[in-house]
Design the sequence.
């Protein structure tokens, strides 16, 4: 899948080696904290950067490519993403107060998974490309375009900030029921959204 051409730069240098005891615990489907909306971050300070670091360590330890603060029980608009977790030197993408300011009319179907619903992988339809505004880990306002897996991952993580999980967007309900059951989750914890709704 196409990777975004824009260069990701951050001031973070962090080991991607999995830790035996990650600093934060990732909540799973059924836990109500995943359904609460996250608040905007008014000041990007050292405590936010410290949380970012802990989220990255927890994400790398779980072998995930994206993690949103509500997944670790923190209701702040903060996301960490790294599509290249096997590469020790490529920097992660840190998104604070991310907002989608444009989406393509073209949609793509792609099989998603989530660290909060381990083992479950299902097709979700989303816009293929997006335009995004956000603040970086130094609080600087930025804009970027994303396509391919990056656009997919950003949209999935932004959903977490609104208390939405990818299973809410799955339109193949038989597959969903089967997959959830197989991995020890319950269908009653899904809150269906119409697939036509974009946000
Ligand atoms: Ni997720």
Sequence:
């Amino acid at each position: 899948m196409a990777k975004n051409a824009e260069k990701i730069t951050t001031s973070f240098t962090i080991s991607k080696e999995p830790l035996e005891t990650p600093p934060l615990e990732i909540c799973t489907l059924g836990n109500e904290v995943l359904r609460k909306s996250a608040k905007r971050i008014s000041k990007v300070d050292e405590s936010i950067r410290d949380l970012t670091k802990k989220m990255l360590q927890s994400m790398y330890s779980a072998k995930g490519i994206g993690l949103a603060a509500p997944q670790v029980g923190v209701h702040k608009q903060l996301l960490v993403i790294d599509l290249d977790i096997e590469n020790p030197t490529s920097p992660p993408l840190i998104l604070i107060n991310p907002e989608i300011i444009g989406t393509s009319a073209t949609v793509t179907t792609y099989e998603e998974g989530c660290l909060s619903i381990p083992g479950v992988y299902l097709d979700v339809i989303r816009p293929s490309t997006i335009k995004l505004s956000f603040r970086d880990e130094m609080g600087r306002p930025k804009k970027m375009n994303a396509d391919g897996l990056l656009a997919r991952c950003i949209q999935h993580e932004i959903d977490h900030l609104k208390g939405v999980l990818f299973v809410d967007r799955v339109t193949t309900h038989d597959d969903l029921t089967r997959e959830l059951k197989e991995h020890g989750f319950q269908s009653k914890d899904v809150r269906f959204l119409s697939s036509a709704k974009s946000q």
Summary: The longest strand covers residues 93-103. The pocket of nickel (II) ion is lined by residues 114-116, 156, 160 (CB under 6 Å). The CA atoms of residues 7 and 27 lie 31 Å apart.
